[in-house]
Amino acid sequence: MKDDNIYYSVGALLYCPANNESIVRSIITEKFGNHYSLALCLEDTINDDFVEEAEKIVVSSLKKIWDKKAVKSFYIPKIFIRVREKDQICRLMEMLGDAQILVTGFIIPKFIPETADGYIDELLKINREYNRKIYMMPILESQAMIDLRTRCTMLYAIKDKLKRIEPLVLNIRVGGNDLCKMFGFRRHSNESIHDIKPVSAIFSDIVTTFGLDYVISGPVWEYFNGENWEEGLKSEIVGDILCGFLGKTVIHPNQIEVVHNAYKVSLKDLQDANSILNWSKNSASLVAGSQAKERMNEYKTHCIWAEKIKILAEIYGVNG
Length: 320
Fold this sequence. Notes:
By secondary structure, this protein is α/β, with parallel strands linked by helices. It is built from eleven helices and twelve strands.
């Protein structure tokens, strides 16, 4: 597992079209609170004929935020730019000037082995040029993953490509709605994507491939109002966590606090985690009942779980 809190801290990642000029005021006034990260999208939320205009707008927006930060204190989320082609990475960083420091990293859609090296080379280039860590978050959403005959080969090919920049891969992200679209699936607000067996099978293979070395973020939940939207989101996040996902793409501010609160740990989990991590090295036994006397804690079995719980408590807090 990752041993730095930053990999677990993306949390609720709010998607916004890069040409939405109102995002500047929303950030400066802390309209969305201070429990979110932000993705400014230049890909599928932007008409193909307006990409150049959207690039100019996102650069202008970030420069305005940077200038305002010099005279006013406000929460600046981790900001990512979702690009549609590799050349945008260096071009946007150059256009941003001093405001480039606001960019935590870049989101790479439809990440596949055939395009991986180009994006990786661009990321390494800007890390050298700006002498700081600038991260990548690749999205696994290609139709090629559906083919059972080649899925594992493709996933491990991607993993092999990412190996040379592993510390710079902040999260692996999954395109749940894109995968559902290919089958013609759409879940209702009382249904979970983890119950859609063809899609959950792909998720399982992704977690099996990447889960020991990377943080993998959960798919978007498209409901933000109406009957059962909040309960459905909470329920799906429970499934996310159980299946190996951490963090959630969100498409509306209503979802932010729900996601953030879902990653708070229970007091019982934190107590057990601390007991496991503080286990006496001189103890003859490596198993003991929990503080609440409800379950067994076993040092060798639960130490990785305990480390994650401690990190999540530091980032998101504790319930109870």
